[in-house]
Design brief:
binds zinc ion; globular
């Protein structure tokens, strides 16, 4: 069967996450977005683990379902088509260490098929850090040492998280290594997948040959429930833990990803947010901010250039389609400028109505026929058509500031010209 999986999420126990991030809200947003499998996140945290054990029941396929399904109430009047939402036990941990006086910090994802495997993982990891402090615990051990521990635990899998981001990543510019083999040493060959990050896409990844052969996963890393599904993985195989990871290992049954436009990510360009300095990768002349003299944060597009070693365009690029959260598309259509468009009543109303009509968000973005959207809301059809054809204008994100994607130019959005431009 075809299904969609978002495998990097957190609970409200992880740092800088929403208080409302829990199983019930993840369940609801999975329905609204059109996701089948959602990670639990944070299973090393004792209080969250207790909640997982109390609220989840085994589905018989290595995933879990909620014992008690919550009513849909995250948005007033929201309705979505029915589907079973499966949870996959997961955690993200932070490896923090010094080598030759340089500080390294890398984030790594770990998955478990059952609570017994979770118990083995938590027992092993508790020797290296305090698991009660944060849903994403800091561990005093090197990335390859962590990977070795996970390799020894049955029914557990390991995936390096958001590998390109400047901070907290395996090959990131600021705190990472210069190659996966330097990061994972003798076990690097055991890797079968990496998570790319919101600011990278498969086209960028294919410029660096160390990633050839690895499956490029994409997840939301949602810190609030409504950010679920910013990026997701597509599968066409048996629905279950073993089959899903087998698809990641062999690429058989892996159908690619839905990718956020990488410029939308908050680490695409190199820059310095305090000074409003953002520099395209091909215009970088140094790593110092010209305004204040402090170091620039190296963006993902520049990091890819630093490590790039394949100039030739490859034929075997992993399949993917671009996505942008539907509330942001409605915000553009309604001329609302906001970083949290669903907080605006008109956007929330338009979004809720569209989800009720078409069933879920991913169907609208990539499945529903354009003619059907055209009949429903012509302007939306134009935006979706442009999304599907990668016709957009982008202002790239940098140093923690999200980028902007627009499907219309100012002329088209001008009230007087609108009819002409869109339907003329
Ligand atoms: Zn992370
Ligand atoms: Zn995370
Ligand atoms: Zn500066």
């Amino acid at each position: 069967m075809f299904y969609i999986a978002d495998l990097h999420t957190h609970s409200h126990y992880a740092g800088a996450t929403s208080k409302s991030l829990n199983l019930e809200t993840l369940y609801q947003w999975a329905l609204i977005k059109g996701i089948d499998v959602v990670s639990t996140g944070d299973f090393t945290h004792p209080a969250w683990l207790k909640e997982l054990q109390e609220k989840l029941q085994p589905a018989g396929n290595g995933f879990y379902t909620l014992k008690r399904l919550p009513p849909l109430n995250v948005l007033p009047g929201i309705k979505a088509s029915e589907r079973t939402i499966y949870f996959c036990l997961s955690v993200e941990v932070s490896c923090e260490y010094m080598i030759n006086n340089r500080k390294y910090r890398t984030h790594q994802l770990i998955y478990a098929k059952d609570f017994e495997a979770v118990h083995y993982i938590n027992t092993a990891l508790s020797k290296y850090g305090n698991l009660t402090l944060d849903g994403r615990p800091s561990l005093q051990l090197q990335s390859h040492e962590l990977f070795k521990i996970v390799l020894d635990i049955p029914r557990a899998y390991f995936v390096p998280a958001h590998v390109w981001t400047p901070w907290c990543s395996s090959i990131g510019a600021m705190e990472g290594h210069d190659s996966l083999s330097d990061c994972f040493k003798d076990v690097a060959t055991e890797l079968f997948a990496i998570e790319t990050s919101l600011s990278a896409d498969p086209l960028m990844c294919r410029q660096y040959d160390e990633l050839d052969g690895l499956t490029l996963l994409s997840n939301s890393d949602a810190h609030s429930p409504r950010n679920l599904g910013r990026e997701v993985n597509l599968l066409k195989t048996e629905l279950g833990y073993d089959a899903m990871f087998n698809a990641f290992k062999t690429k058989q049954g892996f159908a690619g990803t839905y990718e956020l436009f990488p410029q939308k990510g908050k680490c695409y360009n190199t820059g310095h947010r305090d000074c409003g300095v953002s520099i395209d990768a091909d215009k970088i002349t140094g790593n110092i901010c010209a305004v204040c003299g402090k170091p620039l944060t190296i963006g993902v597009s520049h990091r890819v250039q630093q490590l790039a070693n394949c100039k030739a365009v490859k034929e075997n690029i992993q399949p993917f389609k671009y996505v942008l959260p539907l509330p942001e598309i409605f915000a553009e259509l309604l001329n609302i400028k906001s970083d949290t468009p669903l907080h605006t009543v008109s956007v929330a109303k338009a979004y809720t109505k569209a989800i009720a009509y078409f069933g879920n968000e991913f169907d609208i973005l990539h499945k529903v026929a354009l003619e059907d959207i055209q009949r429903y809301y012509p302007k939306l059809a134009t935006a979706i058509n442009r999304l599907r054809n990668n016709e957009k204008q982008a202002v790239a994100g940098y140093d923690g500031i999200y980028g902007r994607i627009n499907f219309f130019n100012e002329y088209e959005l001008n009230e007087k010209q609108k009819q002409l431009a869109l339907f003329g």
